[in-house]
Amino acid sequence: MLTRKFINFLSIVNFSFYKNFFRSCGGDNRIYRVLRIDGIKNISLGSKIVIRDMAWLYAGDNSQLIIKSNCEIGHFFHIVSIKKIVIEESVLIADKVFISDSTHNFSSITIPIREQGVSATKPITIGEGSWLGENVSVLGSSIGKQCIIGANAVVTHDIPDFSVAVGNPAKIIKRYNTKKSIWQKVNDEGTFI
Q1: Average pLDDT over residues 58-73
Q2: Which helix (DSSP H) or strand (DSSP E) does residue 75 occupy?
Q3: What is the number of other CB atoms lying within 10 angstroms of the CB of residue 181?
Q4: pLDDT, position 9
Q5: Considering the domain 4-185, what is its CATH architecture?
Q6: 75 catalytic residue (yes or no)
Q7: Which of 35, 161, 184, 189 has the least CB density, counted as fewest CB within 10 Å?
Q8: Is residue 112 scored above 60 in pLDDT?
Q9: pLDDT at residue 35 tops 70
Q10: Whole-prediction pTM
């Protein structure tokens, strides 16, 4: 029986075979047993990136998917870039996170949704140093730097820098107060409590 260490070694060897097909790819990346990579020529990777098992990276024609250096991405990660998605440096993404800059069209009630195509939303940025918890979905929205997005959150609007957001739809519950140098609760309008 193959040991987990040997299986991981084979995955890294496999990655080294196709890393030259990316738009760009830095060194010391570890991408384990991916489920699928579509549009590899539209994907740019920095250095020291870890992507765990069963990830699906999709970059459509004329799109850009950029993952900058020092990011760690969990198992069953799914990302869909139709226009442009940038994951800034040192982002931590837990298992089963979904990020998409597109949505399925559904205007006709006589045509199955899967046959109506997709529309791009605006480009997405996941800010430097942020952490996305388990099962988070980011739908056509950007997240600022040093943010925490709680497990199971569904992000449907932009989250500013230095924020903690939770829920469905995601709601900001804390922000970093630079005057007091502490994380502080906020009300629904984003004012410190």
Answers
A1: 97
A2: none
A3: 7
A4: 58
A5: 3 Solenoid (2.160)
A6: no
A7: 189
A8: yes
A9: yes
A10: 0.91
